Fold each of these.
Amino acid sequence: DTGVSQDPRHKITKRGQNVTFRCDPISEHNRLYWYRQTLGQGPEFLTYFQNEAQLEKSRLLSDRFSAERPKGSFSTLEIQRTEQGDSAMYLCASSPRTETYEQYFGPGTRLTVT
Amino acid sequence: GNSVTQMEGPVTLSEEAFLTINCTYTATGYPSLFWYVQYPGEGLQLLLKATKADDKGSNKGFEATYRKETTSFHLEKGSVQVSDSAVYFCALSPFEGGSEKLVFGKGTKLTVNP
């Protein structure tokens, strides 16, 4: 069990550029979640996959954000035309097939938009 | 809606002191409740959980009891150590309409001095 991994760990980009983050969940976890955390705040839910199906999206997720989970394994989160307000830590979590749906978090990708 | 309110931090204690971090929640259904911990430079880790009223979650000397009548899930530890210094997040999972997202509080930073 290698845990949830995220790549890259840090990303600095200029406003207006597109960025893509990757998340590899714990193997055999069929649920995958994306959250965003800004300084001094708790994580905020963005979107959720069960296998390859995207089952829920937050109203926080503007049209510039898109997430995919092809084949129900790794997931990508893309932000188009980045804005300074997108600067945050983007967290990925995965969850096994258990009743309590515990979520296991990755280390996060810190995005800085200049 | 669903929300979590935690006591404001930061909290500074001496080693072996008693710790309480208050957490109250608002939920329309019967949520599961969690405490997550974020150590400096690390990702979020599940500390403990409770899935129904009167359940007590416990781990590493920390405890929290799911109190439906007061909508609370306060975190306690009888004797804190320097190694407990971290940010603690209370969270709920509402399970509304199949939603499995976590709703987090803002976090409480704990510093334990030797």
Amino acid sequence: GQNIDQPTEMTATEGAIVQINCTYQTSGFNGLFWYQQHAGEAPTFLSYNVLDGLEEKGRFSSFLSRSKGYSYLLLKELQMKDSASYLCVVMDSNYQLIWGAGTKLIIKP
Amino acid sequence: GAVVSQHPSRVICKSGTSVKIECRSLDFQATTMFWYRQFPKQSLMLMATSNEGSKATYEQGVEKDKFLINHASLTLSTLTVTSAHPEDSSFYICSARDRNRGDTGELFFGEGSRLTVL
């Protein structure tokens, strides 16, 4: 079956760095997305990785290792507004999106 | 950037009535649109994939006759919740894929529609 695993909840301190991990087992692979979702709102796109390595975009970076079925989202200089759920999404060989359950990130002052 | 507009954002209806939710891509053509529902504190659940000009593909467990999806044009998909009941109360979100970006791009999400059935 197809499966995406990510921690249910994480807590971090304002100004610090946090890494949210995602492991996946899917039928083929055509890319991995990270989305941010604030409570009661629609998700917003953060990153897309299809090749191995690190993609940096401002305070956010995303890493992919296809051989390990592993990705992480790295958030630096955490701000209170970063408190949200972070969704790991994999596109399989049929271009279907497989959604992780999301990681709720709580930022404390 | 690409914009997806969803309407209405909030709707309250009586049990037994039908509710239509619209999802429009404002500045791009979307050959594929996705409909999700989300219960409080839970992840998005894909309900169906809507392709322009053809029947929607429903996920297992989603009633086709209850959740009618129409994708009549490249910029509009509608979800109709027929004979709504209180258990249908949820947050419904649509997303669209830009046909010009192929399968390498992101999904663009509507703002979501909160349905409350009394």
Amino acid sequence: DAKTTQPPSMDCAEGRAANLPCNHSTISGNEYVYWYRQIHSQGPQYIIHGLKNNETNEMASLIITEDRKSSTLILPHATLRDTAVYYCIVRVEGYGGATNKLIFGTGTLLAVQP
Amino acid sequence: NAGVMQNPRHLVRRRGQEARLRCSPMKGHSHVYWYRQLPEEGLKFMVYLQKENIIDESGMPKERFSAEFPKEGPSILRIQQVVRGDSAAYFCASSPRAGAVYEQYFGPGTRLTVT
């Protein structure tokens, strides 16, 4: 799986949009970009994933650059409960081997400030 | 629709005892993954199982650890003769099928403390 690079920490004011960047410059054409978060020792929570196109769901939006070398997770209106470690993970498409494991890096600690 | 369930949520074992961690996947999910998070460290993949089969155990320690996912019942992660270094949070995840297109959903974890 391609390696990802994320800033170790970020702050965001409550009610504002949180934009979390991720670099994956060695990503291949068949690798998905996934985002998970972990709120203080709870189980990781799936947020969103995409391959080439931008994606949006009830939790967040995922913006993938045209060359796919980086992406941004957007939480449109951050709340205190969004304080967590956010992980950007790339997974190669397929049905065996490395495709089935999530490789977590160190992530970004997002602190939402009141 | 219930999510991934794990029990117990907290488990205390003395050195040398056995620990059994259970994971019930989401309804309709037949693929189970175990991950471990040591204190102050990141999540590490341990093993991937499909009903009655171990597909990938590349992250499992070679000794004392085993996993199963029987035809009926939950997946079990078993740790024999526990040592203090086994103290960690163990998370189970499930997906409906294999492959990167399918997201994995995690349970709340079992926190194992070895005294």
